[in-house]
Amino acid sequence: MSLKTITPQQYDKMVKQASPNSKSWVDIPKAFLIGGAICCIGQGINNLYSAGGFDTKTAASWTSITLVLISALLTGFGLYEKLAKHGGAGTLVPITGFANAVVSPALEFKAEGFVLGLGAKIFIISGPVILYGTAASVIYGLIYYFFLR
Q1: Which of 8, 52, 63, 133 has its CA 20 to 30 A from that of 42?
Q2: What is the pLDDT of residue 31?
Q3: Rounded to an integer, what is the distance from CA 19 to the centroid of its chain?
Q4: Would the pLDDT of 53 be above 80?
Q5: Share of the chain above pLDDT 90, in %
Q6: What is the 3-state secondary structure (H, E, C) of the chain?
Q7: What phi-psi label fits residue 20: left (phi over 0), alpha (psi between -120 and 50 degrees) or beta?
Q8: Nearest CA among 89, 85, 43 for reference residue 67
Q9: pLDDT surpasses 60 at 2
Q10: What pLDDT is stored for residue 144 in this prediction?
Q11: How far apart are CA 129 and CA 136, in angstroms?
Q12: 119: closest CA among 106, 136, 130, 131?
């Protein structure tokens, strides 16, 4: 069967075979547990920095930096993908998921060189998040400045 002769019904059948329904009753608790575990690890790291004498803001900053570093390393070693396979949306905990979204394309396109590969593609996944997050914050800031202060 060539691609030119596939009917819409045949295509739908192929799609259903290739992507079976997820088992929400299993996936949702796993995502909750893994996302919660990532948050607990972050809180533990924060507690360690606080116990080490850092003030609240500094401890929070170093916690974020540490979580990004751990996420980037796990992505680089191919372990974050394995975690995401089981944790699904739970691995999208904002800072670790964002670090993964930046590192993954960088690794994928590094063979194309630093400028056309790494430099051009590093923000392919996270770029829209940065763009719309920045735009939304500017709009919110303007609304707050002109109407709510």
Answers
A1: 133
A2: 92
A3: 22
A4: yes
A5: 46
A6: CCHHHCCHHHHHHHHHHHCCCCCHHHHHHHHHHHHHHHHHHHHHHHHHHHHCCCCHHHHHHHHHHHHHHHHHHHHHCCHHHHHHHHHHHHHHCHHHHHHHHHHHHHHHHHHHCHHHHHHHHCCCCCHHHHHHHHHHHHHHHHHHHHHHC
A7: beta
A8: 43
A9: no
A10: 93
A11: 10
A12: 106
Q: Contact, 63 vs 96, CB < 8 A?
A: no
Higher-pLDDT residue of 105 and 82 is 82
Q: How far is CA 31 from the centre of its chain?
A: 13
Identity of the amino acid at 64: S
